[in-house]
Amino acid sequence: MSELTPFVPSPRLFSLENKNVLITGATRGIGRACAIALAQAGASVCIVSRSPDPPLPPGDNHTHVVCDLSDSDAVKSLFQNALDKMGGNIHILVNCAGIQRRAPSVDFSEQDWDDVINTNLKSVWILCQAAGRHMVPLRRGHIINFASLLTFQGGLTVPAYASAKGAVGQLTKALSNEWSAHNVQVNAIAPGYIETDMNSRLLADPVRFRQISERIPAGRWGKPEDFAGPIVFLASEANKEEE
Fold first, then answer.
1. Is 161 among the residues known to form the active site?
2. One of 33, 47, 75, 161 is an active-site residue; which one?
3. Is residue 240, in this structure, part of any structural domain at all?
4. CA-to-CA distance for 155 and 90, rounded, in angstroms?
5. DSSP class of residue 17?
6. Signal peptide location in the record (predicted)?
7. Dihedral (C-alpha) 213, 190, 169, 41: value to the nearest 10 degrees?
8. 116 falls within a domain
9. How many domains would you assign to the chain?
């Protein structure tokens, strides 16, 4: 084996012991499944919730901070509040929170637009910037954003969501280009159609459900637990460039 290729046992590559995670959107759906997977890999996980008493995933290594992600002023203090909660160290940021508003584009309200953009895009930018200010000087860290299939496709009756997720994809690329030189890894996961509360209207519409299902190569909608492997990989030392 080449001296330039040191052997590292694979289980250790995926261990998140002694790592602190801040994750949004973890009270349900994909985010909750990700929070459980990260904790099972050994991480201490701080969940963001609008409720002061959120339904935490099982286990002892979960805590939470309160924040309404649609309130940009509140989001600006969120990362520091989480740092204080986690002993001054956050190794991994996961931006998974998102909301949806559906209406024909000619009728789409400005309030719905602002709600979606603030939650799905502006909060991501604010948290990424705060994480970068913490991680770049330390030359370590992982940021994982949740984009979407609609990062690449426009969708129907979801102009704000498609716009926000398209921008999340570009933001992820921009930050990755800038911060990879500082050993901070910035990636995005882009789910397709997943069986979550957000898609309940589509799941309940037999015509749209059939139309969408026919376009899925796997022949089934995804499930939140499908993201356990990808999130642990992207948060772990397996996803790391050597210094």
1. yes
2. 161
3. no
4. 35
5. T
6. none
7. 170
8. yes
9. 1
